[in-house]
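Support case: coenzyme A complex. Customer-provided input:
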Amino acid sequence: MYGSASTHDLPSTAPTGLENEDPILLAEFEARIARGEKIEPGDWMPALYRKQLTRMIEQHAHSEIIGSLPEGTWITRAPGFRRKMAQMAKVQDEVGHAQLLYSAAETLGKTREQMLVDLINGKSKYSNVFNYPTPTWADSNVISWLIDAGAIVNQLANAKGSYGPYCRALDRICAEEAFHLKYGHDAVVHMATGTPIQRKMMQEALNRWWPAIMTFFGPSDKMSVHTEILMRWKVKMASNDECRNQFLDMYVPKIWEIGLTLPDANLRKNEETGQWEFTEPDWEDFKRVINGDGPCNAERLAVRRAAEENGAWVRRALSAGKTHQYVRPLA
Ligand code: COA
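Agent response - structure generated as follows:
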């Protein structure tokens, strides 16, 4: 079965969930978006815009803190002092990204405490790719280079979107991700041009990660649930397939350039259409993973749960004498 990152073909039906909105306010809101204006927290917005943005930014924030875990486990084992320092700085940046994103999501009304409760209880999603193990240093390098590359493709597009606080957070995040990308590329090139054993390790790690990387951009546009409304309101500035195609365009040549191969015999660019063709990802497996049944979901959430519990006394101490939302034990 073949897939293709071809031009998205989204349904053109009017979005549901807007029946109770004031049509005049809704028209003004959509006109502002059409003019390229930013929507700010105090501005009028349809409940569905608020809900969709909260969902997406919250999932993004969770992906940053959970995403710091697979690379974080390699800080103590990174080969050499310089790599160790860089790995540590990168992981710290990722947690900082979560901080920015939770703050952006909070402007929409949901508390950070509730978001973390929803993450720990498995109610909120986070990126599928962080539910896979990193058995070798080479696996960590694949994340540093290619997952960050994928994230930049998505985030550079969405940084031009309609919601001010999210766009400003993405601008800052993209600036830092650009360093991560260079760090990851350098680490992969180092391994791929090293000893035969290092090269083999790098190739095997890439083979392990490729299927997850292909699904990182979300289901194909035909299957995507939220793309239509998110693109209509310029929250997503490119569809899942467009991001996937752009990533393949930018990074497959770079991967091939350093002599690595990709584990998909059908991967090729159709020069006539400009679209990449590839073996259709296993979307059933993708669904299982994002719904909690991937190889590392339980482990990742257990780490977060422990972090919340172990950090409770710090939050209590910081807010001593004040009524603070973070002092309550997590349900
Ligand atoms: N990992 C986990 N879940 C994913 C996913 C992924 N790679 N791609 C899609 N999903 C989930 C969606 O969250 C949605 O679930 P929900 O309805 O329970 O919330 C479902 O699959 C259907 O997907 P779709 O309709 O395509 O969702 P979307 O329009 O929100 O697009 C993203 C998915 C990831 C492209 C989009 O949310 C996005 O750009 N997010 C911001 C960037 C981000 O989070 N990056 C990951 C970390 S760097």
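Residues 55-56, 59-60, 63, 125, 127-128, 151, 154, 215-219, 224-227, 230, 236, 240, 290 surround coenzyme A (CB under 6 Å).

Case will auto-close in a few days if no follow-up is received.
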